[in-house]
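Changelog-linked ticket: calcium ion example.
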Amino acid sequence: MPFSYIEFSEAVYSAWENDGTNRVAITLTRTGDLSNSVYMDLEILGNNINNVGPLGMLPVYFATGEDTTTVYLDLFDDNFVEGTETVSLSLVNYDPNQVALGTQGTATLNVFDDEVSYIEFSETVFTAWENEQTGQAEITLTRSGNLNSDSLGNNNTATLEVRDDETSYIEFSDVNYLAWENDFNFNSPFPDQAEITLTRTGDTYNSVSTQVEVLDPMGYSMGLFNVDFMM
Ligand SMILES: [Ca+2]
Ligand SMILES: [Ca+2]
Ligand SMILES: [Ca+2]
Ligand SMILES: [Ca+2]
């Protein structure tokens, strides 16, 4: 039986309650075997909500071959100074023999109150080098909404990391890597591989070696891979 994975396109959707289009799009994506059509429901839950609807269930349908579908929620303006309304979104009532949820199986929708202004950091983590030529680290704040009042936005805390320029920093290029088990490359002379990229910043005036350890879902090591960065 065909089997596919459904997920939200975003972890967090956002809209303004006074958005001129009066609606917000929730996009869902489908990967895997698309050779059948599938149905499920989008469940929308929240407390004290009057700026978005309907709450409850909305039908979701993917036709044969379709890899994205969009569900629209209605937006309603009001005059209350109240802050953000938040609803949770989840996918339910699907056939587990045909469908599983992908990594982004639930999501949140924030509906911003236009009677309030939002002051927040532009990033959650700011970084600067200790040898920065300007001698300063730059922190940006943004303000949006109704500029005659004030409130904090969601991003109301942030971290500043000051990096040592005598050290080099090795990190993964992504938090999540994805590969398909059936990702065959018939033109390649090598066995099928998943690609993991590491980056190095800072002081690169020496060569360094490290290892990447791969663990199975039980936490057991599947092996160590050598990683060498040249000077
Ligand atoms: Ca409201
Ligand atoms: Ca309003
Ligand atoms: Ca309002
Ligand atoms: Ca230093």
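Closing comment: Example verified and attached. The mean pLDDT is 92. The two ends are 52 Å apart (CA to CA).
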